[in-house]
Amino acid sequence: MTLEARSVPRFTPTFRLQWEQAQDCFVILYPEGMVKLSGSAGEILKRCDGERTVSGIIGELRRSFPTVESLGSDVTLFLEEAHGKGWIQFV
Predict the structure, then answer these.
(1) With a threshold of 0.70, does the pTM exceed it?
(2) All domains in the chain, ordered by first residue
(3) Is the C-alpha dihedral spanning 19, 1, 59, 40 positive or negative?
């Protein structure tokens, strides 16, 4: 799978992103358990709504976090990893 700027990520139906107050972070819930996410992973994944493109997600994150220089490549790498784990798919 080649990730392109116009690719549109969304969660795979068996996975769900949720803010977990007790953990004070975003988590991914799935039938077998839960994955606790870092702050940056949560910021990326909460934008994977099946409507925003990869380039749109990166643009939003650049506006929110202008001091992160490697943001584009970091987001792309993370989305590829999330896809590899089956958390997200591209429409």
Answers:
(1) yes
(2) 9-90 (1.10.10.1150)
(3) positive
